[in-house]
Specification:
It comes from Flavobacterium endophyticum. The chain has 7 helices and no strands. By secondary structure, it is mainly α. The chain has one domain.
């Protein structure tokens, strides 16, 4: 039972997307509305990923490898537009270029196939998102935004992304390097809990945020 729990993560993503649609009036611009697009892209990825093997007999790593490229590219671009200082924005551009180039090198020279997990690309993406998220939070805490940061959907979205990816990265690397035994039940339970935290943050953000702080 528990080993299949991770397959229910799609319903968490779908719930977050539906709540986001209900509070769509709070998302005034393309930047805010893009959060919903990313959530529904996650729903599509979960759906295709969980059914690809049954449909085609192929390993579903290819689906999630594409998701790694799209999602982290999106997170890095989003964080760039959330950052205020020009040097921070330029730094975000540099990290984005490095990530995309490393992803290409990972595919061509390391994995050499789309049907193996792009663990190193995932690791680079998490580290880069963490760095830019720290810069984003520092900018918030050093500005008047600190008074109302909890009313911004972007704060809750970034928090959710961090709560999922940062704890999952060492667990994923430990399994890859055989530092811990791969246990399907533990893996599935952890994945579901982290998804619950992430999409829970998204839902709180949609409910708690105010339109004037979502530009």
């Amino acid at each position: 039972m528990l080993e299949n729990l991770r397959f229910y993560s799609i319903y968490l993503a779908l719930l977050a997307g539906i709540v986001g649609l209900f509070f769509l009036y709070k998302l005034p611009g393309h930047k805010a509305k893009s959060l919903l697009g990313m959530i529904f892209f996650s729903v599509l990825t979960e759906f295709v990923g969980s059914n690809l093997t049954r449909w085609t007999g192929l390993i579903n790593y290819c689906v999630f490898n594409i998701y790694i490229l799209v999602s982290f590219t999106y997170y890095l671009i989003l964080l760039k537009y959330l950052l205020v200082h020009r040097n921070h924005k330029r730094f975000a551009d540099i990290l984005l270029i490095i990530f995309v180039l490393f992803y290409i090198c990972d595919f061509i020279f390391i994995q050499k196939t789309i049907f193996e997990a792009f663990t190193f690309s995932f690791a680079f993406g998490v580290i880069f998102v963490l760095i830019l998220s720290c810069l984003y939070l520092v900018e918030i805490f050093n500005s008047k935004k600190i008074l109302n940061f909890g009313k911004s959907i972007f704060f809750w979205f970034i928090l959710g992304v961090l709560l999922f990816h940062v704890p999952f990265l060492p667990f994923m690397l430990a399994i890859k390097w055989f530092l811990i035994e791969s246990n399907e039940t533990i893996y599935s339970l952890m994945l579901f809990i982290l998804n619950l935290l992430m999409y829970g943050c998204f839902i709180i953000g949609f409910i708690w945020s105010e339109k004037k702080y979502n530009y």
